[in-house]
């Protein structure tokens, strides 16, 4: 968002507008976006963020490779000193690419999500301060998201389950998906995706991080590619709009049983008219990630352990991929 759109009053950048035009919603979304996307946080959102124990962050390096991260803390580790600032009292581990991307002036996308009640709110902001315990953002855009496709989970209290209790993290890096990793992705019903696009001056990348959900099996895995259906949503097209300008993505998957985190980086192909999409109930289009790098970190998300309580009602009307011989 917030990249030169050719229409200074629009809250959307040119990539988002192009996708909105392609699907016939641009005029409606221009009016709707002006009303829903704010330059400061309403009190309701400020209170929501202050009650979280985890938060997802999207960042980018200088060449436009996006990275999704998850940060943890006790309730109150995220705070809002005033409606135009967000403070996060947590820093990334050294294995997290956010540690290299975090600098004053950097653009970050922030997703606050409560998996116990399906609420979520988002901000896009600029880092204005970093210290030994965390960092602070100036809010550029603040907006809410509906609970579509978010599953309710019984995320347990964090007492006695802090990462410090489990010893050093075991980090595995790879370039090719092995069978275990394919199964990890193939059975997932939730993941988070980071994307970015150049700002209007062409000097830096502005970032976003979004949630994706479906039935277990809604992601197709074949060789070193994964294909994700795109369901009807708020029609902002933040992710697809970024992809249209900068076809790169970072994905993060959480194993809610073990707390393991899987991160994947790769290039994106937008699938508008692929015949295989028609066989997937509920999908309007799709996108495909060609993986070139991955990282698995053991128990890095131990604070997100929690069994699935209920599928999102919206997901019940969608399907799973009809597996072909190429799918493994």
UniProtKB/TrEMBL annotation:
<feature type="region of interest" description="Disordered">
    <location>
        <begin position="1"/>
        <end position="20"/>
    </location>
</feature>
<feature type="compositionally biased region" description="Polar residues">
    <location>
        <begin position="1"/>
        <end position="12"/>
    </location>
</feature>
<protein>
    <submittedName>
        <fullName>Pyridoxamine 5'-phosphate oxidase family protein</fullName>
    </submittedName>
</protein>
<dbReference type="InterPro" id="IPR012349">
    <property type="entry name" value="Split_barrel_FMN-bd"/>
</dbReference>
């Amino acid at each position: 968002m917030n990249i030169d759109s050719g229409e200074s009053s629009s809250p959307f950048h040119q990539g988002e507008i192009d996708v909105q035009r392609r699907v016939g919603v641009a005029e409606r979304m221009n009016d709707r976006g002006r009303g829903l996307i704010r330059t400061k946080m309403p009190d309701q959102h400020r209170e929501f963020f202050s009650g979280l124990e985890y938060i997802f962050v999207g960042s980018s390096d200088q060449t436009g490779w996006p990275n999704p991260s998850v940060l943890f803390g006790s309730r109150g580790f995220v705070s809002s000193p005033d409606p135009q600032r967000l403070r996060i009292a947590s820093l990334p581990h050294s294995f997290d690419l956010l540690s290299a991307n975090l600098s004053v002036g950097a653009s970050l996308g922030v997703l606050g999500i409560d998996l116990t009640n399906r609420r979520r709110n988002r901000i896009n902001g600029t880092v204005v301060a970093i210290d030994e315990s965390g960092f602070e953002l100036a809010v550029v855009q603040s907006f809410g998201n509906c609970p579509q496709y978010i599953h309710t989970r019984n995320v347990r209290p964090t007492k006695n389950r802090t990462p410090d209790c489990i010893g050093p993290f075991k980090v595995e890096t790879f370039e090719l998906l092995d069978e275990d990793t394919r199964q990890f992705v193939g059975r997932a019903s939730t993941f988070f995706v980071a994307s970015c696009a150049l700002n209007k001056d062409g000097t830096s990348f502005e970032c976003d991080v979004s949630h994706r959900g479906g039935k277990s099996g809604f992601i197709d895995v074949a060789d070193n590619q994964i294909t994700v259906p795109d369901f009807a949503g708020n029609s902002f097209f933040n992710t697809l709009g970024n992809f249209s300008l900068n076809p790169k993505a970072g994905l993060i998957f959480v194993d809610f049983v073990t707390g393991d985190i899987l991160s994947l980086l790769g290039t994106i192909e937008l699938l508008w008219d692929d015949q295989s999409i028609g066989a997937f109930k509920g999908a309007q289009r799709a996108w495909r990630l060609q993986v070139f790098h991955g990282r698995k970190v053991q128990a890095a998300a131990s604070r997100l352990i929690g069994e699935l309580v209920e599928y999102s009602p919206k997901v019940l009307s969608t399907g799973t991929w009809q597996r072909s011989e190429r799918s493994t």
